[in-house]
Amino acid sequence: MDSRILPGDPSDPLAPEALARGIGRLVAGAGTPEPFERGGTCIESEWNWGDPARRGGACEERLPAVAVAHGTVVVDGAGQALLVSLGDVTLSGVSLYGGVVAAGRLRLERGAVVTGFARARGGVELRGGSTIRGSRCWSIRALSVEPLLVPAVIRGGGLFPLDR
Questions:
Q1: Beta bridge partners of 84
Q2: CA distance 123 to 144
Q3: Which of 44, 91, 111, 138 matches a 20 to 30 Å C-alpha distance to 31?
């Protein structure tokens, strides 16, 4: 699969292709999420995924929707985001608060932690003490980011899109 945004299943509000179209820009390659601020102002950049660790910081409220190309590797760092992958994606040593929706395989390695939710068509692979911690709060926050605003309710640990 290449990095073009291809059509997905129109009946699935969490189809990675549909979410990526809503996001509009695509990040590729490898990078480290970290907050970027200047003069007390949070600066938007493709790898600034907010600052989940520092309450009261300039990037505390930043929780972007980030679309990544097939084969993207996220290395170390921490962030809060809805991460949408158009293919396979690897999180290595990363702490991510929010959610991951992948068209391919989701790999977590080197103690990577996702707090929120993960959904991957190609399955999830956990290595080296990595884990996914379900969190209703972080799931709702991730699914509520603009421009997506996916209406959903969470019941008994499951995510159910609302009828439109």
A1: 67, 101
A2: 24
A3: 138
Q: Where do we find the tokens 């993960």?
A: 118
Which long-range contacts link 102-109 to residues 24+ away (Cβ below 8 Å)?
102/16, 103/1, 103/8, 103/16, 103/17, 103/70, 104/1, 104/70, 108/132
The angle formed by the CA atoms of residues 116, 91 and 111, to the nearest 5 degrees, is 80
Sheet of 131-134, strand order: 26-27, 65-68, 78-85, 95-102, 113-120, 131-134
First to last CA, the chain: 30
| Rounded (5°) CA angle 131-135-137 | 150
pLDDT of residue 11: 64
Determine the Cα–Cα distance for residues 66 and 155; give it in Å rounded to an integer: 26
What's the pTM?
A: 0.82
Query: Under DSSP, is residue 164 helix (H, G, I), strand (E, B) or coil?
Result: coil
**Mean pLDDT for the stretch of residues 31-52:** 93
